[in-house]
Amino acid sequence: MTNTTIPSCPVCGMENTYPDGDNFICPDCSHEWSEAAKQDEVEEKRIHKDAHGNILNDGDTVTLIKDLKVKGSSLVIKGGTKIKNIRLVDGDHDIDCKVDGQSMLLKSEFMKKA
């Protein structure tokens, strides 16, 4: 192990942790984690961008830049529709939102940050 400092527990915040091989263990809340896994999570976090390259975050308000047909329906979401309180998810359709009361997954490439 190259790191000589022992981190506090990410769950309960207690500093009473100890190393066990490549992992750390918190005796107070029984949480077990590895620093390598924590670093991998930070590197794997995907950055979501809108059509103009602006970074999107959970809870943002976006506007559609073009009309979108909804698969399996005759519904068309008009360009210029404002969508509030988006949630970012992994996958091809990376925005989870509600449009006119219906839950939908949309692509961020058809959005601009409002």
Automatic annotation (TrEMBL):
Keyword Hydrolase tagged: yes
Protein YjdM C-terminal domain location: 48-114
A GO term, aspect molecular function: hydrolase activity
Coiled-coil features, chain-numbered ranges: none
Name used for this protein in its record: Phosphonoacetate hydrolase
Keyword Hydrolase: yes
UniProt cross-references to Gene3D superfamilies, sorted A to Z: 2.20.25.10, SH3 Domains
NCBIfam families for the chain: phnA
The Protein YjdM N-terminal domain, residue ranges: 5-34
Lineage, broadest ranks: Bacteria, Pseudomonadati, Pseudomonadota, Betaproteobacteria, Burkholderiales
Keywords on record: Hydrolase
Family under the similarity heading: Belongs to the YjdM family.
